[in-house]
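Recall from the previous chapter that SMILES is a line notation for molecules. Here it describes 2-acetamido-2-deoxy-beta-D-glucopyranose.
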Amino acid sequence: MHIRPLYILLLGAASVTTHASPTPAILDDGHDLNQVPAFNVTNFEASAMVLSNRNFYKFDVTFYHEATPVHCEAMGTTINHQLTSIPQTWCPGPGGSGYGGNGTGNNNNQSNSNSNSSATTGPGVSFKWTEQPDGSAALLIVRRINDKAADTAVYKVTPDCIPMMGDDIFRHQVYEGPENFSVPAYRSSESG
Ligand SMILES: *[C@@H]1O[C@H](CO)[C@@H](O)[C@H](O)[C@H]1NC(C)=O
Ligand SMILES: *[C@@H]1O[C@H](CO)[C@@H](O)[C@H](O)[C@H]1NC(C)=O
Ligand SMILES: *[C@@H]1O[C@H](CO)[C@@H](O)[C@H](O)[C@H]1NC(C)=O
Ligand SMILES: *[C@@H]1O[C@H](CO)[C@@H](O)[C@H](O)[C@H]1NC(C)=O
Ligand SMILES: *[C@@H]1O[C@H](CO)[C@@H](O)[C@H](O)[C@H]1NC(C)=O
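With both inputs in hand, we obtain:
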């Protein structure tokens, strides 16, 4: 519901750029006010295993003002040695609960990684890998701040970054893009 007024505000701001009236919706550098510091992903790996019906995804993600990365990983099942979509999976760990590292404590009952836990509210970090029909994929990382607000970053993976490698029985899909990258993140809040 709050999206529409914000959108109109943004449109309004765009059409009056010549009148230097300050607008709360867009910062000087053109960034959306909802933008938060980028999520830094390190050690990203995704691969189908050779001679196996499993695939795996793993990475560390560091948030603004936090020294300790949160480790995320998931395994999937594949019938053709390719990467597959992975449902939302919680990333356990000390930094995985709570905003700003401190305070919010360890109230994360949600570290169970069944896909229904996406309905869980409260602090926590989760991710999801989605295969697209065009052969690309998207890594979604969500950092839930509380039951009303979350920061979300989406890293798009082009098909050339996830080639099939190896011959014959060793053929399997592997992520070949950078292992470290930074993903722009945005805050969304559900208005009560
Ligand atoms: C990626 O980041 C990790 C952790 O900071 C570091 O150990 C590694 O050398 C980096 N890799 C590259 C290619 O920069
Ligand atoms: C991400 O990495 C960049 C470049 O290394 C750094 O300037 C920035 O502070 C980092 N951000 C976080 C959230 O760690
Ligand atoms: C985090 O908690 C520690 C120990 O309780 C405390 O000393 C520190 O000041 C807290 N940091 C923040 C940013 O609240
Ligand atoms: C969460 O954990 C607390 C304490 O461990 C427990 O009392 C509570 O029932 C749990 N809630 C859910 C929804 O599992
Ligand atoms: C999981 O979510 C699905 C779809 O929302 C729902 O139908 C199902 O009952 C849920 N299962 C549990 C155990 O909550």
